[in-house]
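Dear colleagues,

As part of the handover before I leave the project, I'm documenting each prediction I ran so the next person doesn't have to rerun anything. This entry is a single chain, and its sequence is reproduced below.
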Amino acid sequence: MCFERRPVLLSAAAAVAAIWMTAAAGHGATQKFYPDDPIARDRDDVIDASSAESRELSEMYDFLDHTFGSPGDEQAVAAVNVNTLDEVPDSSWFTNRIGAREMTTGDLVRGPDTERTFGDSWTITQGKGPGGFQPGFRAVNDDDPKKQLYQLEFDPPTHPELATGAEVIGTAIYHALGYNVVDMYLVTLDPAKLQISDDATVKDTNGRRKFTKRDLEGILALAARTSDGRYRSLAARFVEGKPMGPFEYHGTRADDPNDIHPHEHRRELRGNRVFAAWLNHDDSRAINSLDMLVPKDGRQVIRHYMYDFGATLGSRGGSGSHGGRCAQLPERCQGFGRRAGRQFLQLPMVPLR
């Protein structure tokens, strides 16, 4: 009896299989994507953002908000700015480089830099300011007819080539990954060929004042000097455009009509957590980001940058340890403490969430 039923069962199974294969073939013939899929470019620069205003972010408020609060949407949702292939399109935040095209070793090492040569003479236009522990100033190279502005920063005497090396490597890696970073060059400075502009200023704990020779001497006293009496320095090129202040890793920028995706749900900013952990980048925070208002096809749009990779690969930004800096220049750390205390007292209460 069972032998008589077996051909029937086999026939039924064959029929079901045939129906399934026909349906699968029909499904495969159906268009899977929209005509413009997969989107390779997120056109988040189509609306003019010239009405946006520059803003400042309190370093102390940012620290407290992320330490004791929970800013942003904490829902476990998929990234909202990916295409149908679950990939991040190019945008004002990100450009696909490694993985999307072949990058040679030379491309990786060069990073965002272009071929530039620098003369020996520099003119200081502005101090770096009281933030951070890596000493430096802003200057233009006297041989540059365009008078491009650079921020120059140094290694600590006890750790030559530490912070500058980490900065160059971190910048090159983040550029290859796809993030917007600034050009970063290594230069050698002769202190005898450093001039101070008559209009140069510096901002300290008491406000903005004239940049003096004593300020320069204080900066160089904290910098590693080579055997020939010169200084190895980073020269970070300022991006063309108007600085608009940092972006935050949550929410959106209210005055940017193109910024529609909550930052905590952007795939490239989520991915930065992995890359920062990989490089031991313990200073990846809003204060080390920058929005720039730049021209684009007759409009003004905001482009988003990351910078300051001096605290990667075991470096502490320029000091080896902050304690070492305070031992060399205690009044600087005392000023930082006073400023932090004033900012703390001026803060609104941050709700715990």
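The chain is about 30% helix and 20% strand. Residues 2-29 form the longest helix (28 residues).

All the best with the project,
I.
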